[in-house]
Automatic annotation (TrEMBL):
This is Sulfotransferase. SUPFAM superfamilies: P-loop containing nucleoside triphosphate hydrolases. It comes from the Bacteria. Pfam families: Sulfotransfer_3. Coiled coil: none annotated.
């Protein structure tokens, strides 16, 4: 069981940084409930019962100045208070109604047992400070090698709309002002995905560097270190979060990280899969050309040097 002092948990970082894997492994603990991306616009569109906050941007910045539209909804989500009426209004057929009633009962069970919510949400990276302050959350920020991040976005052909950042003046003012010119250029131009992904990584982790300065109590962990040595790293996390690192949890982690698992997920699949976590760490080296690696490093190095040494690029 969870320690009585166990707080809500936020697992964040860039997308494609292992947040789903890490969140699922921690929620293998029976006292923890995995909460999937309440900051996603898709959550409100499809599952408003789970979170009624209407996020219109993929990386919304919430702070004291604009929290009115979000605070109560996030509080309800973390308290497992399911909005039955909102979900009924979003349903389209009888199957949806049956699922909604089942979910309502499940959430009631979570609340009655006082379980620990684990919010897995890379889309909340810019709002991590607000979440930690308002809801007294334990925060884990995952860092992933920029070349691996770019490789993943390139494989999935995931672009990013930089115009959304320009629509958030508070975010520009507080965090992204050094990049405003680049953001404006990338919002107007159809650059190659390698350059766009590199800029996105650089911006996200420039903010993480500020978090390290102002929030030294948070946990900052490189995906590569976690994937390369999962059992002791997860045991450390469980201890920090006041959770029991049981034999069952350990077995689940071993199952999902075993050397007998495939290195990569099937093409076009970004769901949680059992992986050979150690081999997966450096798989980007076989998927990028030497020139591409040099190009990515040159774009991000002013930030990446704080997380990765030169030998981490070889």
């Amino acid at each position: 069981m969870a320690n009585d002092m166990a707080k809500p948990i936020l697992v964040t970082g860039s997308h494609r940084s292992g947040t789903t894997w890490v969140g699922k492994m921690i929620s293998a603990c029976p006292s923890v409930v995995y909460v999937h991306e309440p900051f996603s616009p898709e959550t409100y569109r499809i599952y408003p019962g789970r979170c009624g906050a209407k996020f219109i941007y993929w990386n919304t910045y919430v702070t004291d100045e604009n929290e009115a539209a979000f605070y109560k909804h996030i509080e309800n989500t973390l308290g497992f208070r399911y909005n039955l009426g909102a979900q009924f209004n979003a349903n389209r057929n009888f199957v949806d109604f049956k699922r909604t009633l089942k979910e309502y009962c499940i959430y009631w069970g979570y609340r009655s047992r006082n379980l620990v919510p684990l919010m897995k949400d890379p889309l909340a990276i810019f709002s991590a400070g607000w979440l930690a302050k308002k809801f007294d959350m334990n925060v884990l920020v995952l860092v992933r090698h920029p070349a691996a991040f770019v490789t993943s976005l390139k494989r999935l052909n995931w672009d990013y709309d930089f115009y959304e950042l320009l629509q958030q003046p508070l975010l520009i003012r507080d965090y992204l002002y050094p990049f405003e010119q680049e953001i404006t250029e990338y919002a107007a131009l159809d650059n190659e995905i390698i350059d766009r992904a590199a800029l996105l990584w650089k911006m996200i982790y420039s903010v993480v560097l500020k978090y390290q300065k102002y929030h030294p109590d948070w946990i900052y962990l490189r995906y590569e270190d976690l994937a390369g040595n999962p059992i002791p790293c997860f045991e450390y996390l469980f201890n920090r979060f006041g959770l029991e690192f049981s034999d069952s949890v350990k077995a689940t982690i071993q199952d999902y990280t075993s050397p007998s698992n495939p290195i990569d997920a099937p093409e076009g699949d970004w769901s949680l899969r059992k992986r050979n976590s150690q081999a997966n760490v450096g798989s980007w080296k076989n998927k990028l050309t030497k020139d591409e690696i040099i190009r990515i490093k040159a774009h991000v190095e002013e930030v990446s040097k704080e997380f990765y040494a030169d030998e981490d690029w070889e």
